[in-house]
What does this fold into?
Amino acid sequence: MLIKNGIETQTHDGARTQFGLQFVKTGMVDKKFGKLFSKLFDYRLKADYGDLFDFGKDIVEPLFEEVELLINTIRKKYRLPLLTFLYSRPKRKEYET
It folds into this structure.
């Protein structure tokens, strides 16, 4: 969405900030999706840089439905192609411990 709207950022945090400013604050994207995007970004930071942070089933599984709704809402609203190579829901066994 950022690129499609001519918005370039240099960092992941910049992308999160611009997503919030350009799409959430303006009402183009629902606030619940802005919160979800921020939560996912925070989880990504914890996974990359946090000490011993474990993403168990209790954290990951509830996110699937929310993320699918976010992707489908944005895709339909902005007529973006479905990028199946970037997102495919894993089978349950793939993320169970």
Notes: The mean pLDDT is 82. Residues 29 and 73 are 9 Å apart (CA to CA).
